[in-house]
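Friendly challenge for the regulars: who can give me the structure tokens for this chain first? No prize, just bragging rights.
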Amino acid sequence: MSGCLFCNITIDSRLLINKYFYAIFDVHPVNPGHLLIISKRHTTDLFGLYESEFKYLHEIINQAKEMLDTKYKPDGYNVGINCGEDAGQTILHFHMHIIPRYKNDVENPKGGIRNIKQPIEYMGYFNRL
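First reply, four minutes later:
Bragging rights claimed.
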């Protein structure tokens, strides 16, 4: 798609590449080494991937981890996919975040992503149902 940012990524900015996916550094990283794994084929989100693509997604995830382990030596990872604008997806082309985590990068990492986001139920959402 001509107007899609991820459909127009230049080859020289791709760190890893396989048959169906490529990886780049996130331009707004949460932590050093924050990568995006992006589908070559334009599809909106995870639910639009073909079954045959998942093998290659698994392959590039492991290659990304190996590269990040070597270069950045993180202590852990957050891996995430936003599906839909209401889930925080801003570019409607499949991409997965691989975010290296480091000891003491937050005061208390317990709860992972829940540590940086107020749970929906506390915002009164379930009271509206």
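The beta strands are 16-17, 21-25, 35-39, 76-80, 95-101. The mean pLDDT is 87. Your move, everyone else.
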